[in-house]
């Protein structure tokens, strides 16, 4: 009997499924419950141990506006009553509501939409830009370009440009056509002391690490403040300020008209010539305007400062800096009571005006004077005021007439009492000449007569 033909190997089977290794432990070869059930077509018994390949999930979205073939020519049963499409009902139709729908007219029947089943993964569901068409941003770019073109046209007609801050307007562009980082413009020499190490006092000059410069002088008596003042003086005086003005003029000329012939390094003579010419024209316009104002409102010679006042103003080389409120920076703050002078005593007074009040009038408490800016009279003034008040109110006359009135009233009462007869009996008349002892004896006897046991008092006999 010939041997059986050899079995053809399954091309789908892997090398590990051809023969099972009995030396692999069961906890490795056994398929866990969360890896799915093992089917009949399972060729690799160690598939759950292999590195699983991740499925490529590409962001998908609905194909908007896609139609499924041409539109029908007749209305079909179950289609939308408004447009005639089979993919939705009338309440879900997005077409314009018709006066008479396609169900009754049979005209303008729309094609069926393509119903897509888009399956999104975990990342695709949370992608906020999924389904966004980048072509829609072209409208924004075109609108910006149109506005920029209109702005350039308007500036070319007017010949002017909006004023901008001169501080860091050209911070990133140090040269006419070369860009340079802001950090490299203010690098210091390694031998110099760092500005933030000059003074570590928190109340001193403030160091800005972004611009690498001192931004606030703070106190005016320390080394850091002096350094700040020196740097500010060097930047704003001498050739440094002129160089900065020339550089700014060249930049502004290039931005306005695009003319590069006034380049500060390439053609400094032309830039200086045109800058001087514009300065002279501006000065000429200012002089003409000032002349017109003088002709209209008069000369200001009458408002000039006298020479005596000018001589009082002395010059000093001491550097003093003021803040917004007009106070000297770094000077100790003095808390004022008010903006008016207080506790100022005039004309020998020991109290201020308004410290005393009487009869709806204010005055001085030290002398009771109600006349403002009067001379103080002290205690004599108080006595004089009290005497005048007694005389004004009539209190003196009342005190003088008081004794005589009292004696007259007493005499009148005595005469009236003597003339008037007594209407009531006196106590002696009511007693009738009987003494108090006799009345007491009478009361005792009367009480004993009414008492049945009174006859046994003082006797030892038994009844």
From TrEMBL:
It comes from the Eukaryota. Residues 1-21, 50-70, 153-185, 254-287, 399-463 are annotated as: Disordered. One of its GO terms (biological process) is mRNA splicing, via spliceosome. Residues 120-355 form the Pre-mRNA-splicing factor SLU7 domain. The keyword Iron does not apply. GO terms for cellular component: spliceosomal complex. The keyword Nucleus applies. Keywords: mRNA processing, mRNA splicing, Nucleus, Spliceosome. Coiled coil: none annotated. Residues 7-21, 50-66, 167-178, 273-287, 406-418 have a biased composition (Basic and acidic residues). GO terms for molecular function: pre-mRNA 3'-splice site binding. InterPro entries: Slu7_dom, Splicing_factor_SLU7. It is found in: Nucleus. Involved in pre-mRNA splicing. Associated with the spliceosome. Belongs to the SLU7 family. PANTHER family: PRE-MRNA-SPLICING FACTOR SLU7, STEP II SPLICING FACTOR SLU7. This is Pre-mRNA-splicing factor SLU7.
């Amino acid at each position: 009997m010939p041997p059986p033909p050899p079995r053809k190997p399954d091309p789908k089977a892997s090398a590990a499924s051809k023969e099972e290794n009995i030396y692999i432990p069961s906890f490795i070869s056994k398929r866990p419950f969360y890896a799915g059930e093992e089917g009949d077509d399972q060729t690799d018994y160690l598939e759950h141990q292999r590195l699983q390949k991740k499925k490529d999930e590409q962001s998908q979205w609905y194909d908007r506006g896609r139609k499924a073939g041409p539109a029908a020519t007749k209305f079909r049963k179950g289609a939308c009553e408004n447009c005639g499409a089979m993919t939705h009902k009338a309440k879900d139709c997005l077409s314009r509501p018709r006066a008479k729908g396609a169900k009754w007219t049979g005209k303008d029947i729309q094609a069926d939409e393509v119903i897509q089943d888009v399956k999104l993964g975990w990342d695709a569901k949370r992608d906020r830009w999924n389904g966004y068409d980048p072509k829609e941003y072209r409208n924004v770019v075109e609108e910006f370009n149109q506005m920029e073109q209109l702005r350039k046209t308007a500036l070319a007609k007017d010949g002017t440009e909006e004023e901008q801050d001169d501080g860091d307007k050209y911070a990133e562009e140090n040269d006419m056509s070369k860009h340079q980082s802001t950090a490299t413009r203010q690098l210091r020499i390694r031998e110099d002391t760092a500005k933030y190490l000059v003074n570590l006092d928190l109340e001193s000059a403030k160091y800005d690490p972004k611009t690498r410069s001192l931004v606030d002088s703070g106190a005016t008596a320390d080394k850091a403040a002096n350094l700040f003042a020196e740097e500010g003086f060097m930047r704003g005086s001498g050739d440094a300020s002129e160089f900065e003005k020339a550089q700014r003029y060249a930049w502004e000329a290039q931005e306005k008209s695009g003319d590069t012939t006034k380049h500060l390094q390439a053609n400094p003579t032309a830039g200086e010539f045109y800058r001087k010419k514009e300065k002279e024209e501006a000065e000429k316009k200012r002089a003409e305007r000032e002349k017109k104002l003088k002709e209209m409102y008069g000369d200001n010679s009458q408002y000039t400062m006298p020479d005596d006042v000018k001589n009082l103003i002395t010059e000093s080389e001491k550097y003093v800096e003021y803040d917004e409120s007009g106070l000297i920076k770094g000077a100790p703050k003095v808390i004022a009571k008010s903006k008016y002078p207080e506790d100022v005593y005039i004309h020998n007074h020991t109290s201020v005006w308004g410290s005393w009040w009487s009869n709806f009038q204010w005055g001085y408490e030290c002398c009771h004077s109600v006349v403002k800016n009067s001379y103080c009279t002290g205690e004599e003034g108080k006595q004089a005021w009290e005497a005048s008040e007694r005389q004004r109110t009539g209190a003196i006359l009342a005190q003088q007439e008081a004794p005589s009135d009292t004696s007259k009233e007493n005499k009148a009462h005595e005469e009236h009492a003597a003339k008037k007869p007594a209407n009531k009996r006196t106590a002696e008349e009511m007693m009738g000449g009987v003494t108090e002892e006799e009345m007491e004896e009478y009361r005792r006897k009367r009480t004993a007569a009414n008492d049945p046991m009174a006859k046994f008092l003082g006797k030892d006999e038994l009844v």
